[in-house]
């Protein structure tokens, strides 16, 4: 027993942090339940899968996995830049939006410094803010949408270095037209960076993703291969922003941190625009179906520009939580917002038709069980 | 032009950091040269490749890449634990040793705090120490080996929270017997954590990797799938240590940060011990050949317990650098240590026979060019 020795000396900040997990994965739940889910529609994954070209590229890259990746992500960065019509100096490739959020917070936020987000917005961003000692300042959603004016007002009031918004939003699925986002960028206080999380942008109708100058130092856009490209498992996201900000990631990133197989898959995916069109079509169908299933049970689904629908269970968070638990007990993996008033909803992903069949079969019974209480 | 707006407000620490790259990748060099390398023996990769089982597992996982990974890395952690005969609570899976080093430094080192390593040891560790504001204290190598006694003395003198050693060593390939490492662990000052980087341990003869109590809070062992398992491209490493330290990674890690395909590949690799035996046999042959090539040119290769050989060019760093440049100009990718007196050597990886054929053909001419230069 090595009892006489003290444990590692953590920094005061790390000592103060809880050992936490922003999300419990479905696999963890499956292990605890001893049973797999029949419908995996809780993590906003793209159940329609990746481009066959991406799968083929990853399979080919597997045998080359003995080589380190290209730490510059050169080919992928250039392909992303071409797809967005910007120069490669405006593109950073990172380990998913989650990883990029951590790097941005690390670069901009020191202990005690304020960061602005919405109450009930992306928990992993909050995890990173806490992890670097930032002070999270939240503003409420307004009518189930993030509130750009309130976010900007809070950023101004707090002199915050960082303000976060997702458009379209997660977990509610709601969105602002591009013009409102442009207005928000124009209102960003001097010295504040707007983190514009566009993970779901490709699911939104035209006129939601704004046309921004990539050299604008006031905003950093975040995109991902996890959603429309159906590659959540490969951990690749990217940021588009002013070149000096993009270059600064070199100070803090894990240079060889992207899998070589992931690089190959993402490169093939960004080139297969037909697949994106197919996925969007399937997602629209599934979103309509989720609305119909809710409606058949007397419930309303919030308008959504994402690959999920927030179904308003019509009562409080405790009730919605019971609905969720009843669905989980029926092997339907779903999640829900964490705070009121958003938590009157459960969030249902655009699953494949056979998954939504299971949802349709189980939903009435889950509601009845929740009502019984 | 958004010139009237200020750039993002970095923390003072990040502002002070250079935008750097610990290693320039061979792909970057190839792009600059406009020509590919004929022998890729500079990054200590495993040219004999991954287990066919791992390749098959990754190919199968590619189609499932639309799912996020299991953020607990459950199956992989359990398999690693079984392979090492420890409980899973002692195993942390991270984004390569590079990623794990960053997390450990972040957890233990605040601005200005001392960290001890060897002068000329792993640059990426130094990158992370600088990245979190740590003060790097180095001790020299002794007879081309890291110096455990000097490292411990420096850790004690500085009251350092962290001291790093690689055994076997990179970039020299030298090593200490297990008994010396055990003696080093026993001498670790109270409150210091020994980071024991064993990236190359599987290439070493028996009696190099010590038998350590996994509950010992004084030491954290690091292993990787990048070397003997031939999976540098998938970014998976792991740490073995005391359960409270292992749990603390949950405070700071990118929970969904390991690719699902990487999880599948690593899981298959750790189960294929026959492949490890095959790779070790090939590496020993290649190491012997590197020594013979050096000897045929009148040079000595340092004893090595790794998958590379440090060839002593017999003069100073400027000369060795010319030898390296002459090899690179002949399409042979190699690297070398960064500081004297280690930099009298060039580091040559255990390539495939056809790669070492190219080395053998080009080496004399490269030496002649360096001598003339």
Automatic annotation (TrEMBL), chains A, B:
Pathway the protein takes part in: Amino-acid biosynthesis
Occurrences of domain Aminotransferase class I/classII large (ranges): 42-362
Matches recorded under InterPro entries: Aminotransferase_I/II_large (IPR004839), HistidinolP_aminotransfase (IPR050106), PyrdxlP-dep_Trfase (IPR015424), PyrdxlP-dep_Trfase_major (IPR015421), PyrdxlP-dep_Trfase_small (IPR015422)
This protein's UniProt keywords: Aminotransferase, Pyridoxal phosphate, Transferase
Molecular function via GO: histidinol-phosphate transaminase activity; pyridoxal phosphate binding
Enzyme Commission number(s): 2.6.1.9
KW Hydrolase (keyword) present: no
Family: Belongs to the class-II pyridoxal-phosphate-dependent aminotransferase family. Histidinol-phosphate aminotransferase subfamily.
Name the UniProt record assigns to this protein: Histidinol-phosphate aminotransferase
